Amino acid sequence: MNATTASTDGRQPTDWKTDAMQRRIRARYRAEKRFRFYGLAAVFLSAGFLAFLLFTMVSSGARGFTQVQIALPVDFAASNIVIEPEQLDGNDREQLLALADFQGLAQESMVAAYGDDGQALFSNGAWVQLRNAVSDDPTLLNRSEVIWMPASTEIDFAARGDAGENQSEERLAMMERYQALEEAGQVRSALSWTFLTMGDSSDPTLAGIWGALKGSLFTMLVTLALAFPIGVLAAVYLEEYAPQNRWTDIIEVSINNLAAVPSIIFGLLGLAIFLNTFHLPRSAAIVGGLTLALMTMPVIVIAGRNAIKSVPPSIRDAALGVGASPVQVLTHHVLPLSLPGILTGTIIGMSRALGETAPLLLIGMRAFVPSPPDGLTDPATVLPVQIFLWSDELNPGFVEKTSAAIIVLLVFLLVMNGLAIWLRNKYEQRW
Amino acid sequence: MNDATDTQAAPEAKPATDEPLVDPASLKMTARNVDVYYGDKQAIDDVSIDIGMDNVTAFIGPSGCGKSTFLRTLNRMNDTIPIARTSGQIELDGEDIYDPDMDVVQLRARVGMVFQKPNPFPKSIYENVAYGPRIHGLAGSKSELDQIVEKSLIRAGLFEEVKDRLDDSGTALSGGQQQRLCIARAIAVDPEVILMDEPCSALDPIATAKIEELIHELRGKYAIVIVTHNMQQAARVSQRTAFFHLGNLVEYGETSELFTNPHQERTKDYITGRYG
Q: Is A352 exposed, middle or buried (0-12, 13-18, 19+ CB in 10 A)?
């Protein structure tokens, strides 16, 4: 080094072969390799976390989709239910079924088949299965038939081979009971769609996700129907028409800040406006949707403005140059070209809205809602809130339900994002 | 205020030759006392000019002299710049184009424009040309539209090169082809005037030669106004040339006359390369 720096007047020709030079080059390559390794390590680490998450979810959630069932011989013909199969063809079918004492029949059959404590083997709401079976096939009423009924939580545990930490005598007795049933072939673990088709229940063996799924669907529809058009129109106005003055600046700053406001504050806003001022129904999908739309809109506005801004001015000039009106420039050129960007923003906003829990708790969507909502104003809950509620349950049977619900939420998210990405690619190809 | 006297001298220089520069029969556009301001800055100062149907008119001048700005006032493209303000009178066939009753959309269909950078829409070649006729409802049927597209492409000298791939994206063409596509797009709406804002500045010499050839062929069918910073190009393609400097129209005359025998000192300095 001293040799090269010594000359102050006129530079000596650089010698690229010196050891110092070679060392520097090697160090540079090493740094490059190291940097690549860090990046790769980060990718593997996050992939590992993701795999771990998916594995634990799927392995513990998979049981949520199965149901332990016990065979119950039921003699419908000898029961005190005196409905003829033909009667069920009439209009009063529902009423007849509702009035018939299936619960009593179930109890009798359980005691007959499994002794005095036979009822303890079955889930509390198991008798509903009898009614459903008759509803599906009225000719059952003239026969005796073996019906597979959901087992009680205790049997469910026994089936898992888990007697609990404090192995109480009742638990151990139940284990023995289960083993006896298993040897007799009277118990099975069946894939059951009841988890996907039933509403919430306080009994984990009967609790299903359908109510929350439907609630999420309705809420998302309201959110999308409001946030997307309002967000896009606001972005278009701010970008294309708004005059450059202080008011526009204030609106711009407000929208940017709004996108960063914690979601629970939107919940309070929804509570104050939609429930207390407009008196909309409590814990309804429409209120949830409105609240989440408030939250999603700024995200769409910001993404929309950026997308519109990135359309090259030369395209606007070209369209104006052949005599397109400003609205035609917008609808024929600017919006189609910015649609992929707008959709990306919408995906981000909607994904966030789908996973949102806090604001919905505030507008009452944390209520126990056993029957799935039929409309926007019916009481409903949504997937993340359902997960929150179940994870809070004391009954350990809800643990796997919680995992199963998380799987359903993730699949919902995946389907929604897949749809949006497919739409985005479609438009990108066209332009 | 040397500039001001020069400017006033320029329009007066014309009547001195007894007959007007542009034959009244072929007069297409006239501008009288046009001023353009960008905010507080005056970009165009009291420009008056006549543009004829039968000729190619070139606007030359050093960068920032206002030639492009003035060109853009002729089809009101400056309206899209919020801070731009235009005063004075510009007429197309005797109609004031800044009249509140004038429909800008129709004006731009009648006065087409080709830009400095080729800017085809990111759509198919066919759609690029068909867009104008479609929004103005110029074609009654699909076959009629096909015909307009074909004719426009032929006129722009591009048809032979693209006839087998009209559905390909217009942005996939080479720069020169893109610019000819833009000319075809302008022609397709059947304009009366075509404004070209340095149409060759982004092109290589061969593509430039093709565009110049095209301008020759289009001459007479449309009133063509071309802005160029290239004096040789102005000499090659135009019959009349206007020299702009610092927002003033310094001199306007027959191209041959202006290049060989300029009346104004500033024109002479510019042409001989003393500044630019």
A: middle
Angle at Cα A186 formed by Cα A183 and Cα A191, nearest 5°? 110
Which amino acid is located at A3 in the chain?
A
DSSP code at position B156: T
| Contact flag A321-B112 (C-beta cutoff 8 Å) | yes
> Which of A80-84, B37-41, B88-92, B132-136 bottoms out in mean pLDDT, i.e. has the lowest?
A80-84
With CB atoms and an 8 Å threshold, state whether A323 touches B105: yes
Name chain B contacts of A320, Cβ cutoff 8 Å. 77, 80, 108
Q: Residue ranges per domain, chain A?
A: 64-192, 210-430
> For residues A97 and B142, what is the distance between their CA atoms, to the nearest angstrom?
64
Per-residue pLDDT tens over the stretch B265-275: 999 989 888 76
Instruction: Indicate the CATH number for domain A210-430.
Output: 1.10.3720.10
Give the closest-approach CA distance of B112 to chain A in angstroms.
6
Those residues of chain A whose CB sits closer than 8 Å to some CB in chain B are: 243-244, 312, 314-325, 328, 332-333, 337, 431
Domain extents for chain B? 2-118+190-271
**B121 vs A316: CB contact, 8 Å cut-off?**
no
Exposure string over A209-222, b if 16+ CB within 10 A, otherwise e: bbbbbbbbbbbbeb
Q: Which residue has the tokens 């294309």?
A: A240
For A375-409, the pLDDT digits (tens) are 888 889 999 999 999 998 888 778 888 988 999 99
Fold type of domain B2-118+190-271: Rossmann fold (3.40.50)
Closest CA to A421 of A348, A372, A337: A348
Q: With beta carbons less than 8 A apart as the criterion, state whether B275 and B67 touch.
A: no
